[in-house]
Amino acid sequence: MTDFVAACRRAIGAQHVLTEEADTAPYLLDRRGRFTGAACAVVRPASTEEVAAIVRLCNEFDVPIVPQGGNTGLVLGGIPDRSGKAVVLSLQRMECIRAIDTVNNTMTVEAGCILQRVQQTAADARRLFPLSLAAEGSCTIGGNLSSNAGGTAVLRYGNSRELCLGLEVVTPQGEIWNGLRGLRKDNTGYDLRDLYIGAEGTLGIITAAVLKLFPQPKAQRTALAALHSPADALRLLTLVQRQCDATLTGFELMSGFCLELVVRHFPQTPLPFNTPYPYYALLELSDHESEMHAAELLDAAIDQAHEQGIVHDAVTAHSLAQSQQLWALRERIPLAQAAEGRNVKHDISLPISRIADFIDATGSELQQSYPGLRPVIFGHLGDGNLHYNIAQPASESDTWLLPHQDAITRIVHDSVHRFDGSISAEHGLGSMKRDEILRYKSPVEMKLMRTIKQALDPRNLMNPGKVV
Amino acid sequence: MTDFVAACRRAIGAQHVLTEEADTAPYLLDRRGRFTGAACAVVRPASTEEVAAIVRLCNEFDVPIVPQGGNTGLVLGGIPDRSGKAVVLSLQRMECIRAIDTVNNTMTVEAGCILQRVQQTAADARRLFPLSLAAEGSCTIGGNLSSNAGGTAVLRYGNSRELCLGLEVVTPQGEIWNGLRGLRKDNTGYDLRDLYIGAEGTLGIITAAVLKLFPQPKAQRTALAALHSPADALRLLTLVQRQCDATLTGFELMSGFCLELVVRHFPQTPLPFNTPYPYYALLELSDHESEMHAAELLDAAIDQAHEQGIVHDAVTAHSLAQSQQLWALRERIPLAQAAEGRNVKHDISLPISRIADFIDATGSELQQSYPGLRPVIFGHLGDGNLHYNIAQPASESDTWLLPHQDAITRIVHDSVHRFDGSISAEHGLGSMKRDEILRYKSPVEMKLMRTIKQALDPRNLMNPGKVV
User: Fold this and answer.
1) What range(s) does the FAD-binding PCMH-type domain occupy (chains A, B) (predicted)?
2) CA B75 to chain centre
């Protein structure tokens, strides 16, 4: 192993090969603090050629590779196991924005670019890069693509997959595939790009990407609607989509209990209604005409929903500050939940039409097994993506959850499966859900995935123990 | 071979296994009449299980399989070679619309459904399935997906790839993969769906798909703008996209020579301007508010382009009939070209920002080698997709082209490659461009593609001789 480390030092410079515990610790610790891995070294190459050189050394010395971006993943996809055999390959020094093309509406960036910087660079050129998520200040675009990150603008702009036109990848053999195309149409063979996107670094290392840009909206408008049920939220979604089409860029569902928690732990964020309601929807329009047009469009849709008895009360933001206040209700849910204590988290997706029935059926099933259990339901309803979290019964302390969490997850995931949903909507599988998925994927699908893995990475050096 | 045919007859019924020349001929003839293949039989299974049964028989008897939809492909992707060893597997009897879900905005259809029927079924449910192309009356959705078809609405809605959420596929071993998910987010492993889409039947047979639906627009508005150059067309595109965003659903470029041909061969379609211009752009807005809103939006954009000296003249359609008249100018280009005689066709794409320079550079190069050659340039400028066709010099008859066509294509494709474009934007590779692509794809990319093919179809039974 010392030979391998020495060879890495020669390849990319000694100062970029970390082996001291104090230096490597941040790369080995899961961001949520649930797990610490071990590695023979953390290497920080600065170029695609250096990444390829390291991968070739890993082949020579038979060293497994764990690619890592901003280390903000939620499923242990970028953390090595505890054997200490693997090397962590951090892409953080590959942070060059290689090109921006405002006519083609594309930007070519290296994998280690922080998402927020990508957004800002686009904005400086009067363009929108729409990917947006909680970790945007520290996650990297390479990690976003490797995990096919979702976020809050998927309804209008799609997941990371839909925001990428081309990739540069270092293969498990240390070769460089230059697929950095900025084309909207290209039917010349197999879609390698989409195979690497979402593969969580198990098929190769994404080193650069061509991203799609969009015209910046001229105005944004936010509203909070009070609802009686998830079924009404679905009716509202259909109505607003029909009237506003692509202008609707956000549609978030929140249960009454979510906002009860937010108001309890963040008294500076009051509920803008006199009485609480069972459910709320947060709507956002992004308009390319004017503030006034956005306001008219949103008001008309909400008025109509009011008349049809779908919406019982609603507030619309009349300023950026008011809009941020409404979004704060949504964004503070995870923090409020953490302040309340432990909870069991699930990142699930469902056919949108089945969400209301799923919430009913799963809630009943959980209550039957664990009377008093409190679901904390929120998420991107427009994409069918729920964060379906579970808090202990009000009468118990949160340690009550510990012995029950696996059984609770089993009930939730089995129900997701019955409703034709997915047990990982936007977080990936990593090593955390790698066994769990075997319960739900067909043997045919698992075999296809393993066949591809075996063909592209026959020595199983790329992020072993993750995904498949 | 008679054993194989007999086994097929037992598996799916004798009347669905065609061997008489009169019966098989339509399946063996390329739609443009350039090639006739041979097959031991044409089989027409009616269900996924029957498709799987046939594929298992092909494995048993070592018979290559050529899947076929509506046989409207342009690159010989669905026609067998002349050896007569292969079986043509037609999906035409698999034409069930399995489900439609207007809340999830999805439709589950079998591969043999004609595209126009899919569009109509969506429209009957007040939804839009936006894929639209010249062959829509006879092409099938399975073929559209296998070739990742593009068409006229890509600018707003994407290629076939972006319009599909899930697939059902029969593998080369005759197993059935049920990936018929109707989910907007699902990060549970490798993206098998996008691997089969665009693979032209070389990795498996798509038997059914979950398609995305959209709200129907309330109004459409069409305009024709007269321009001096492709560079001005790009300026117009940027301006209209900034003001109209997703409302802009079509942006077609046409050279003056294209419309000269249309007017010559279709005198009933006059040019709506007093003088001809070097270039034209056809714009289409699809609006979810009202006719009036669409008109205001389009007029404002064109007025502004006028003021900036980008647009020199423009007409806007004030009725459906007028709109169809404008679209007829675009749609009749291929027919007018055919009436004028032979031509050398190229289906190319480029980064949008490089199109003007590409047209200049390629035109000069062609003129240098072949003075008087007449490019017929039109296409989906908003997607960077040009149909860059070539007619003989005006002084020659069209047989002049025959000895020169390969050299002309070489100049065009080499230029496309220099400008970072693709030599097949929306038609695929088939067997026609299978060798051509070797000039332009890197050895690394070809190796990756062959590795995947070899892994998933080790016996090379699936559409051999196509793509890789």
Assistant:
1) 35-216
2) 11
Q: Domain with B399 in it: what CATH number?
A: 3.30.70.2740
Order the strands of the B106-110 sheet from edge to edge. Answer: B97-101, B106-110, B205-212, B164-170, B176-179
Place of tokens 């949008």: B352
Closest chain B residue to the Cα of A446, Cα to Cα: B189
Measure in Å the smallest separation between the Cα of B46 and chain A Cα atoms: 22
Inspect the interface and report whether the beta carbons of B154 and A467 lie closer than 8 Å.
no
- Domain presence at residue B313: yes
Place of tokens 């502004």: B304
Same domain, yes or no, for A174 and A239? no
Note the helical H segments in A220-314.
230-244, 256-265, 291-307
Spatial separation of the C-alpha atoms in residues B162 and A158, rounded to whole Å: 10
Determine whether the interchain pair A448/B176 forms a contact, defined as Cβ–Cβ distance below 8 Å. Answer: no
The pLDDT tens digits of the residues spanning B60-101 come to 999 999 999 999 999 999 999 999 999 999 999 999 999 999
Interface pTM, i.e. ipTM: 0.97
Segment (H or E) for B24: helix B21-28
CB spacing of A188 vs B242 below 8 angstroms: no
Q: Do B323 and B409 fall within a single domain?
A: no
Question: Are B159 and A427 inside 8 Å of each other by CB?
Answer: no
CB-CB neighbors (< 8 A) of A385 in chain B: 184-185
Q: Give mean pLDDT in consecutive 10-residue pieces for chain A, a chain of 468 residues.
A: 93 98 97 92 98 98 98 95 98 98 97 98 98 95 97 93 98 98 97 98 98 96 97 97 95 96 93 96 95 94 97 94 94 92 94 97 97 95 95 93 96 98 96 95 98 98 96
CA distance B260 to B250: 22
Q: Name the residue facing A101 among B215, B241, B353 (closest C-beta).
A: B353
- Asked if B28 contacts B40 with a C-beta cutoff of 8 angstroms, the reply is no
How open is the CA angle A259-A265-A269, to the nearest 5 degrees?
60
B196 min Cα distance to partner chain A (Å):
8
The answer to whether the CB atoms of A351 and B175 lie below 8 A apart is no
A392: left (phi over 0), alpha (psi -120 to 50) or beta: beta
Do A127 and A186 share a domain, yes or no? yes
Counted domains in chain B:
4
Which residue range forms the structural domain that includes residue A86?
A: 2-90
Q: Could you tell me what percentage of chain A is helix, strand and coil, using 3-state DSSP and rounding each to the nearest 5?
A: 40, 20, 40
